[in-house]
């Protein structure tokens, strides 16, 4: 509990950072410096739109912690493994994992043994999926990097560099796991993978969303009254988003933005687009 309390400032800073990245990685596609349009409260709570992804990430971390705090009765080796942090790859790719599951399956059918078998099997399956994603993701990125509409020139270099580093780190982890059965500083390695993976997920999601809008497929249509005039979206004027004080529209033909103060907007109507 003490360590958890001491970690609150770090966790809070990470949440604010991830939330800020969520805003900037989206609005940068429209040449909007969103930081100038956010209130202090919005900046501090900028992670709230990511509540569901963050909860899913916390669920995954909780599942990983189970391997540390829940002993698996009937198998002394697996219980011994919980004495110190174990890396993702150590759990998911170590050759003895199948042996542990096999011994758990053949152990006496007590409630604790069954629960231990279920937990270990679920974590193993989840790990295989995650490791597969980590391995395949760079291959999926390379073809996308050549799409000029998705990635500007400077973004392509970024994609190649990140993919290369991703491969090198993954290869190094596998080699260390095979040789020593345990990864040095496993907790930090896992944390780095999780943070990078989550930020990558947020950035790619925002890129896809922004690209859809720039191609004339916004998620919403909007109509409102501003200074006595009716403003509404169409095939050329599209809705980008809003903060608590500002609303953003994009003119696709001349690549310009219109920014409206919300306190001057009246009779606003927002409808989900049918396209």
Distance between the termini: 50 Å
- Rg measurement, Å: 24 Å
Low-confidence stretches: 67-95
Q: Please count the helical segments.
A: 9
Overall SS class: alpha+beta
Q: How many DSSP E strands?
A: 6
Determine the fraction of residues in helical runs and give it as a percent range. Answer: 55-70%
Overall spatial form: elongated
**Strand numbers in spatial order across the main sheet:** 2-1-6
Largest sheet: 3 strands, antiparallel
The H-and-E topology, N to C, reads as HHHHHHHHHEEEEEE
Features:
SH3 type barrels; 275 residues; single chain; elongated; alpha+beta; 2 domains
Q: Helices, strands, pairings?
A:
Elements: H1 2-27, H2 40-44, H3 51-69, H4 76-81, H5 88-93, H6 96-106, H7 111-145, H8 153-180, H9 186-214, E1 220-226, E2 229-232, E3 237-242, E4 246-251, E5 256-261, E6 265-272
Antiparallel strand pairs: 1-2, 1-6, 3-4, 4-5
Helix pairs in contact: 1-9, 6-7, 7-8
Description:
The protein has 275 residues and is α+β, with helices and mostly antiparallel strands. The protein has 2 domains: 50-205, no CATH class; 220-272, SH3 type barrels, CATH 2.30.30. It is built from 9 helices and 6 strands; from the N terminus they run H-H-H-H-H-H-H-H-H-E-E-E-E-E-E. It has helices at 2-27, 40-44, 51-69, 76-81, 88-93, 96-106, 111-145, 153-180, 186-214; strands at residues 220-226, 229-232, 237-242, 246-251, 256-261, 265-272. The strands form 2 sheets. The protein has a 3-stranded antiparallel β-sheet with strand order 2-1-6, with no helix packed on it. It has a 3-stranded antiparallel β-sheet with strand order 3-4-5, with helices on one face. The protein is elongated, with a radius of gyration of 24 Å. The N and C termini lie far apart (50 Å). The model is unreliable at 67-95 (pLDDT under 50).
